[in-house]
């Protein structure tokens, strides 16, 4: 591992930090705009589906190509494509030709770019840092994401109050340009390719075989399989609640732009605390056990948020901080665990497959968001789904193969399945 890996990360983090803040700002500005203009859980749900569905559908195939392509150029081109989609959205707002359908469409196209950028970024980390630093790197990444979650909503709320939504969207274009420039000045290695002694096959069959190898590595290890299943179920419960957070603030607690942005900010503060702790202190506790504890804490904060009366906004703020902390620690430990257990040459497809497996069922849950909000109420939705996450956290402690996952070595694919050439 080159001794300059820290310098590479500093440059990479700088560009990603600026890009994340700008993306967080325009995402929250759009949430405010849609919430105030429509006051509809269905509209927010459809916007979330548009932003997630393409990425979840093409993610596994995108991951295969990420493992084959130059990862640096994959991130650069993905950032550029996302910026162009945002620029098109801003032009529609400026000209007054926007409709909800056009917003959904462009959000979907941005999602296509993210399908390539996210796995390329995560799959590059083990190639840039020593293995014993991966959890700490995940902690720093959580700090960056958390800080952007704090600064982004604050910037978005300020910008939407001072500028037209079309002008606010241009912030994301600027952030993408900065991220692209920083990627140009660093070197990101690609994993060594294995020699392919098998007969020549068509590109389509080769992509299919490589996708199958990614699915095989998830299926063949019971611990990894259980880790994915529990995380998918937690995400299924969490996704509708994430969409309804602004509406709970707006309708139940009687808040406005300030309160909506405050909740987003304090969630980011909680994530910042969690990521900061992991970046400074290296936990000796088994990562799987730590993840399970975070499920319990996250579920409790969400369920209790639904129990609060309308005058309990300050308690809602405190619970949101704890929720952000638990989500940050869970995410960092999960990512580091996968990076430690899976070979670098397979990480792109594995992360993409996980994302699709986790998000596709959650999109079905999102389709029911309007039904939940209209028929059982926002508060009961938080209570029921938060309690389900608590139950999943308890059940996760009963799976022996899951608990011993942290003591295993890196999972290797057989030569017949590893088709990376």
Query: Biggest sheet, in brief?
Result: none
Mean pLDDT: 75
Helix content: over 70%
- What is the CA–CA distance across the termini? 23 Å
> What is the class in the CATH system?
Mainly Alpha
- Tally the structural domains: 1
Give the topology string: H per helix, E per strand. Answer: HHHHHHHHHHHHHHH
Assembly state here? single chain
CATH topology group = Growth Hormone, Chain: A
Bin the strand percentage.
under 5%
Category from helices, strands and their pairing: mainly alpha
Radius of gyration using CA atoms only: 21 Å
CATH structural architecture: Up-down Bundle
Concise synopsis of the structure shown:
With 421 residues, the protein is an all-alpha fold. The protein has 15 helices and no strands.
Keywords:
421 residues; Growth Hormone, Chain: A; 0% strand
Walk me through this protein's architecture.
The structure is a single chain. The protein is mainly α. It has a single domain, classed as Up-down Bundle (Growth Hormone, Chain: A). 81% of the residues lie in helices and 0% in strands. The chain has helices spanning 5-38, 41-68, 71-95, 100-128, 134-162, 165-184, 203-220, 222-252, 257-280, 287-307, 313-341, 347-367, 369-376, 378-396, 400-403. Helix 5 packs across helix 11, helix 9 packs across helix 11 and helix 13 crosses helix 14. The two termini are 23 Å apart. Residues 194-203 and 409-421 have low confidence and may be disordered.
């Amino acid at each position: 591992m080159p001794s300059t890996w820290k310098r590479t990360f500093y440059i990479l983090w700088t560009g990603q930090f600026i890009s994340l803040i700008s993306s967080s700002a325009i995402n929250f500005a759009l949430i405010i705009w849609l919430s105030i203009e429509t006051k509809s859980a269905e509209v927010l749900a459809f916007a979330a589906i548009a932003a997630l569905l393409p990425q979840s559908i093409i993610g596994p195939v995108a991951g295969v190509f990420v493992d084959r392509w130059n990862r640096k150029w994959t991130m650069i081109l993905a950032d550029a494509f996302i910026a162009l989609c945002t620029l098109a959205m801003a032009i529609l707002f400026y000209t007054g030709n926007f409709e909800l359908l056009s917003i959904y469409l462009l959000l979907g196209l941005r999602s296509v770019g993210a399908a390539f950028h996210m796995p390329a970024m995560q799959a590059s980390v083990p190639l840039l840092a020593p293995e014993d630093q991966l959890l700490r790197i995940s902690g720093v990444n959580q700090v960056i994401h958390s800080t952007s979650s704090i600064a982004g909503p604050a910037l978005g709320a300020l910008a939407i109050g001072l500028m037209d939504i079309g002008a606010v969207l241009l912030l994301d274009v600027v952030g993408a340009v900065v991220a692209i420039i920083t990627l140009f000045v660093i070197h990101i290695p690609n994993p060594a390719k294995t020699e392919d002694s098998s007969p020549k096959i068509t590109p389509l069959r080769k992509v299919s075989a490589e996708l199958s190898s990614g699915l095989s590595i998830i299926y063949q290890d019971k611990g990894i399989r259980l880790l994915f299943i529990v995380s998918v179920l937690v995400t299924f419960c969490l996704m509708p609640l994430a969409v309804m957070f602004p509406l709970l603030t707006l309708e139940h607690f009687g808040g406005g732009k300030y309160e909506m942005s405050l909740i987003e900010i304090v969630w980011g503060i909680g994530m910042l605390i969690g990521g900061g702790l992991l970046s400074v202190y290296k936990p000796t506790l088994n990562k799987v056990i730590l993840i399970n504890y975070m499920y319990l804490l996250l579920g409790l904060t969400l369920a209790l948020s639904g129990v609060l009366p309308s005058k309990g906004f300050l308690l809602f703020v405190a619970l949101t901080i704890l929720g952000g902390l638990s989500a940050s620690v869970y995410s960092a430990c999960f990512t580091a665990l996968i990076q430690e257990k899976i070979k670098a040459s397979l990480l792109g497809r594995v992360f993409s497959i996980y994302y699709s497996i986790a998000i596709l069922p959650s999109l079905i849950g999102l389709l029911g968001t309007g039904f939940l909000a209209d028929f059982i109420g926002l508060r009961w939705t938080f209570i029921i789904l938060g309690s389900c996450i608590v139950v999943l956290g308890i059940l996760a402690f009963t799976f022996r193969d899951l608990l011993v996952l942290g003591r295993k070595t890196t999972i290797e694919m057989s030569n017949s399945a590893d088709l990376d050439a």
